[in-house]
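Think of the structure tokens as a kind of shorthand, similar to the way a musician reads notation: each symbol stands for something richer, in this case the local conformation of the backbone. In the example below we present two proteins back to back. Begin with the first one, reading the sequence and then the tokens, and try to describe in your own words what changes along the chain.
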Amino acid sequence: MPNTSPVREKVAALFSEIAPDRAFRLCAGLCDQAFTEAVQPALTTQNELPPPLAYDVAFHLSDWHVQAAFIVALHLFPERFTPAEISEGVSEFFSHAPLHVATGAALFDMAYDNAEYIAEAIKDSKRSTIS
């Protein structure tokens, strides 16, 4: 999906309404330096991650923030989205965010103790969708 789309423009407009002084932070990629400047040293000091690793974790937390903003906007204002926009936003979210979350978790050394539970839940979800 391009860096701009009707859905992204709608999300930006909604955030401009509710957080006008912060909405500019919704941009493509790792563009908000303030985010990285807050997360990297926090992870370095609080979690003893080396700065380059802390930066990588910050990247994986941030690179999908536009998709996260869509999910929040959809929760707050579902009536403002058409079915086509919802479909587009959900598709963009699931095509971008999961890999960043998994990679960030692995970098953060958060082993999934419940990996078998997650795999079973996915299988159950597919079964209920098919039947």
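Once you have a description of the first chain, move to the second and do the same.
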Amino acid sequence: MKNRMIVISLFAGLLVLLVAGGYTLLKGGSNTPAIGSPAPDFTLNSQDRQPVTLSALRGQWVVLYFYPKDFTSGCTVEAHNFQRDLSEYQKRNAVVLGVSVQDEATHKRFCAKEGLNFKLLADRENEVSKAYGSLINLGIARLSSRHTFLIDSDGVIRNIWLDVNVRKHSEEILRALDEFQMTKGAKP
């Protein structure tokens, strides 16, 4: 009886560890760059097959958002809200860049179908998603986690969102942009 209780206790503990580890795996974020650190530079092709280099955007704020997959409900809602608020980002000297592991052609179809006018970047080699701690490895497939990085005009990470509500996220980022840009020394 005592041995059975020990086995059950060990099994329960292992189950808790597996659930917690699975949650972390699905959410990603274990190796994200730190707030206040330089944003890892990259060059990726956009939906129009043109390269976009993060460091070339210095002088502007960058909303770098990672998302799992084009044409899915959550990703579509999130993209629509960024598109809806695009003029507000432009007023704040900010550019929106979406990143997923899908290819340029898929991004192009998604942008055309959903009326998106900002850049979606193809991280086909998973390197950028990995550098930002935003890669989910499902064994047979890899996806980008739903994470967002707010990068200032000097290329420094100012905020990170690892738990995103797609319906409210764009407004949340706009509020954060306003707060950062109003602080002394922040460059709009």
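Compare your description with these statements about the second chain. Residues 31-182 form a domain with the Glutaredoxin fold (CATH 3.40.30.10).
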